[in-house]
Protein: AIG1-type G domain-containing protein
Organism: Didymodactylos carnosus
Amino acid sequence: MGSQCGLIILGNTGVGKSYLANILLDRDVFKHDCNPGSVTHATEFEDIHIGESNYSIFNIPGLIEADQQRIDLNKCEIHKAFQLRPNSIIIFVFGGGSGGRINDEDVIAFRSINKAYDFTRKSLLLFVNDLPNGRKSEYDGETKIRLETLLGKINN
Ligand SMILES: Nc1nc2c(ncn2[C@@H]2O[C@H](COP(=O)(O)OP(=O)(O)OP(=O)(O)O)[C@@H](O)[C@H]2O)c(=O)[nH]1
Ligand SMILES: [Mg+2]
């Protein structure tokens, strides 16, 4: 069980972390809501089976841009998740709902948490959520280049 991989979902409040976790689980387990304030306030996790493997999916409270207290709290939550599942992958969620734009507040949150946690490329997955349908075929490639430029140093 200790070698089971964790999927730790991070990102600003409201980008759709709990919504995405439910899609991966294929069950409506984690509360997600249209709400003026943050919705998830404590870390929860559920086990999922994908292909031949079992994973634990961690639904973590949202980061809030440049809020050092929240970044510190999240650092603690990420630490606890890594203790439970040392082989964990970070899924960092960007909100793509504003016409696919990569928002400054998501970039700032990523940089703060990456500075605290030193993610490595092989354990990091970047996810742009809530994209409009029918976006141009170049969007994915252009976004990859833009994220490489905006996010700063990520360890190999
Ligand atoms: N249609 C649609 N709705 C989405 C999508 N992603 C998120 N939502 C909705 O957006 C709202 C916010 O999503 P949540 O999953 O609660 O956001 P969160 O990142 O978990 O937010 P916190 O728990 O506050 O950190 C909810 O009403 C979701 O149902 C998406 O890709 N498509
Ligand atoms: Mg949530």
In short: The chain has one domain: 5-151.
